[in-house]
Design brief:
The protein is an alpha/beta fold. 60% of the residues lie in helices and 10% in strands. The protein has helices at residues 3-9, 19-27, 31-46, 49-62, 72-118, 129-145, 149-170, 172-175, 179-191, 193-219, 221-226, 230-282, 288-327, 404-412, 432-435, 455-460, 468-475, 479-484, 502-515, 532-544, 556-561, 579-585, 587-597; strands at 364-373, 380-389, 393-398, 419-424, 427-428, 441-444, 520-524, 548-552, 564-569, 572-577.
Length: 598
C-alpha cells in the first residue's frame, strides 16, 4: 500500500471529536487512579520550585536577613521533609499511573477488537492484518500514554506560571526576557504540526507493513520452502524494513530536531536573562539570595518552555493514533473507541456459556433477491433466491469466479448484503452475522483458519467435552491421523496449523463445525485438499448424520446425492434442480459433467 493510500485509509473522519474529548472520556474510566497519579506527578514536576526558595532562605539566614527564628537547621529540616514527601509522591504516582495506564490501554484494545468481531467476518478490518495488529498494539499504547499529557501540561503551566510570578516579584524587566523563548517555542510547535502528523503517520504505516509481511511469512512458511523462495521473501522483508527504517529515522530526527530547537531557545533566553541580571548585581540591586533564586528559576522556567513544546508536539502526533484507531471502527461512532466496558485484570473472565439450544426446530432458510457486489468491481452475486428445507442437501457448483463463495458468505452475513432478505423459519433475519451462528448454523470455509494450540482446543474452542468431541472427530474422519500423532488430541499444531497438512487442517476445521451440532451445516469445498478415499468416507459420514447441508462442491459423487443443485454463472443462479435434471436441461452442466457420466 502506498503512502498516499495509507494516508487516505488512516485519515481522521471530519466529524470525529477532538483529541481532548477522547482523553477526557478515557480519564473518566478510572478517575481515582488518574487523580492519584496526577497529584503525584504534579508534585514531581513542581518540586523544582522548592530549591530556589530554599536557596534564597539559606543565604538570607547567612546574611542575617531571615525572619526571626528561621535558622540553617530549619532549612535542613524542610529539605529532608520535602525530599521524603517527594519520594512518597513518586512511588504512589508510579503505582497509580501503572494501574490507570493498563486499564486505559486495555479498554481501547477491547473496544477496537469488539468492533472488529461485530463486523461481517469476511470484511472485519479496514486494512491488512499488519495494519490492524499495529493499530491494536501500538496505537492503543500511544493513546494510553497520552493520558499523562494532561497533568504534565498542567504541571508545566503551573510551574512556569509560578516561577514567572516569583521572578516578577524580584525584577519585572529582567523576567520579561523569559517570555521570548516561550513564545518562540509555541510558534515553532504550531508550525511543525502538519509535518509532525504526516511523518508520524508514515512511520506507523511502514511499521504495519513490516508486521503484515512477517505474519504472511509465518503462515506461508511451508509454501515458501517448497517453492525455494526463501531468498526472495527475505529480500522483500528487507525492502519493507528499509522503508520502515527510513520512516522511523525521519520521525526520530524530526523529534530530536524540534527538541533541540526548543532546548536551545530556552537556554538562549536563560543566558540573555542572566546577563541582564549580572549587570544589576554590579549595581547592588540584587542580594546574593535574590541571585540564587533568580539563576535557579530562570534555567528551570526556560527548560519548562522546552518541555511544553515537547508536550504540544506529542499532543499533535497523538492525533495519528486516534485517527488510525477510529478508522478501525468502520462506521461505529468515534467515541465508542473509549466506551466504558468491564475489563478482567484481576482474574479470568466468566467462562464461555455453551450455545443455548434452539428455541424452535429448524424448518427452512429462505433467501430472496440477495445481492452483494464488491465496491469498484462487477464481481459478486446479484438477485439470488433459494430455499433450503430441513433434512435436505443443497450443493452450489459452477466455474471459478462464478460467485459460489460470495453467495455463502453473503447468506451468512460475512459480507454485508446490499439488497434482498433472509428468512429463518419464515421470520426475517435483520443481522445474519449475529443470528446465523451455532447452534443454528456452523460454517467451514475452503481455507479455514486454525489457532495456535492443540487439536482439542481448536475443535472445542471453549465448549465442554460432553461427548461431542468424539462424535465430531469421527464425522471428520480424523481418527487415523490422531493415531499417528504422538500426543493425539493434545498435539500442538503451531501457528495457524503449520504442523498439519492441508487435508488435516480442513478436517480439524470440519470437526470444529460438527462439534457445534448445528441445525444447518455450511461448507465451502470442504474436501478440496483430501485424497479420494478420505473424501468419500467424509461425505458418507456427513450424509449419514441426516443433517441439513448447504455446500459448495464440484465433485460428481456429492452432486449426485444432493437434493438440489444450484448452478452459478456470473454471480447468478443459472439453473437449479437435481443433478440428473440439470444434466438434461443445462448445456453448461453437460459440458462440465456430461462426459464423466457417459
Amino acid at each position: 500500500m502506498t503512502a498516499k493510500a495509507n494516508a487516505k485509509a488512516n485519515a481522521k473522519p471530519a466529524d470525529a471529536p477532538p483529541t481532548l474529548k477522547f482523553l477526557a472520556r478515557l480519564i473518566s474510566y478510572s478517575p481515582g487512579r488518574y487523580l492519584l497519579a496526577a497529584l503525584g506527578w504534579m508534585v514531581f514536576h513542581l518540586w523544582p520550585l522548592m530549591p530556589g526558595l530554599l536557596g534564597k532562605a539559606l543565604f538570607d539566614v547567612l546574611e542575617g536577613r531571615a525572619a526571626l527564628g528561621f535558622t540553617v537547621w530549619t532549612v535542613v529540616a524542610i529539605v529532608v521533609a520535602a525530599g521524603l514527601a517527594r519520594s512518597a509522591a513518586i512511588l504512589g504516582a508510579t503505582v497509580a499511573w501503572a494501574g490507570w495506564y493498563l486499564r486505559a490501554r486495555g479498554l481501547v484494545q477491547r473496544n477496537m477488537l469488539s468492533r472488529i468481531f461485530r463486523r461481517p467476518g469476511a470484511d472485519a478490518a479496514s486494512g491488512s492484518v499488519g495494519e490492524t495488529v499495529s493499530t491494536v498494539r501500538d496505537d492503543s499504547d500511544a493513546i494510553a500514554m497520552m493520558g499523562g499529557w494532561g497533568f504534565d501540561m498542567l504541571s508545566a503551566l503551573i510551574f512556569a506560571g509560578g516561577g514567572l510570578i516569583i521572578l516578577l516579584s524580584v525584577d519585572v524587566q529582567v523576567t520579561l526576557v523569559v517570555m521570548v523563548p516561550l513564545a518562540l517555542v509555541l510558534a515553532l510547535a504550531q508550525l511543525a504540526r502538519a509535518k509532525a502528523y504526516r511523518i508520524r503517520e508514515q512511520s506507523r504505516a511502514a511499521t504495519a507493513q513490516v508486521t503484515g509481511t512477517i505474519g504472511e511469512i509465518v503462515v506461508a512458511v511451508r509454501g515458501i520452502k517448497a517453492a525455494h523462495k526463501e531468498k526472495q521473501v527475505v529480500a522483500r522483508l528487507r525492502e519493507h524494513n528499509a522503508i520502515r527504517k527510513r520512516a522511523m529515522i525521519r520521525d526520530k530526527v524530526q523529534s530530536l530536531a524540534l527538541d533541540s530547537v526548543f532546548n536551545s531557545t530556552a537556554s538562549l533566553g536563560a543566558g540573555l536573562t542572566l546577563l541582564v541580571a549580572a549587570g544589576q548585581m554590579r549595581t547592588g540591586e540584587f542580594t546574593i539570595g535574590d541571585f540564587v533564586l533568580f539563576s535557579t528559576y530562570l534555567m528551570q522556567v526556560s527548560d519548562y518552555t522546552g518541555f511544553m513544546g515537547y508536550l504540544v508536539r506529542t499532543y499533535q502526533q497523538s492525533g495519528v493514533a486516534f485517527s488510525r484507531a477510529v478508522s478501525l471502527l468502520r462506521g461505529a461512532p468515534p467515541m465508542s473507541l473509549v466506551d466504558h466496558n468491564k475489563l478482567y485484570l484481576r482474574g479470568d473472565p466468566p467462562p464461555v456459556a455453551p450455545p443455548a439450544p434452539l428455541d424452535e426446530e429448524f424448518r427452512s432458510l429462505e433467501v430472496r433477491s440477495l445481492s452483494h457486489v464488491f465496491p469498484g468491481s462487477t464481481h459478486g452475486v446479484r438477485d439470488v433466491s433459494l430455499t433450503i428445507r430441513a433434512g435436505t442437501v443443497t450443493v452450489v457448483t459452477g466455474e471459478v469466479g462464478s460467485g459460489k463463495t460470495t453467495l455463502l458468505r453473503a447468506v451468512l452475513g460475512l459480507y454485508e448484503r446490499q439488497d434482498g432478505e433472509i428468512r429463518w423459519n419464515g421470520n426475517a433475519v435483520e443481522s445474519p452475522g449475529e443470528f446465523l451462528i451455532p447452534p443454528r448454523v456452523a460454517y467451514t470455509p475452503q481455507n479455514p483458519a486454525l489457532l495456535s494450540g492443540t487439536i482439542r482446543e481448536n475443535i472445542l474452542l471453549g465448549l465442554p467435552d460432553d461427548g461431542r468431541l468424539e462424535r465430531a472427530v469421527h464425522t471428520a474422519v480424523l481418527e487415523p491421523d490422531l493415531e499417528r500423532f504422538d500426543h493425539g488430541l493434545a498435539t500442538e499444531i503451531g501457528v495457524r496449523g503449520v504442523r498439519l497438512s492441508g487435508g488435516q487442517i480442513q478436517r480439524t476445521a470440519a470437526a470444529r463445525m460438527f462439534a457445534r451440532e448445528p441445525a444447518l451445516l455450511v461448507m465451502d469445498d470442504l474436501s478440496s485438499a483430501l485424497d479420494v478415499e478420505t473424501e468419500r468416507e467424509l461425505w458418507r459420514r456427513i450424509f449419514a448424520t441426516s443433517v441439513t447441508c448447504l455446500a459448495v462442491s464440484h465433485r460428481p459423487a456429492v452432486l449426485e446425492q444432493a437434493d438440489q443443485v444450484l448452478l452459478m454463472k456470473n454471480g447468478r443462479i443459472e439453473a437449479s434442480g437435481t443433478f440428473t435434471e440439470l444434466l438434461a436441461a443445462s448445456a453448461d452442466m453437460r459440458s462440465r459433467y456430461g462426459r464423466r457420466q457417459g
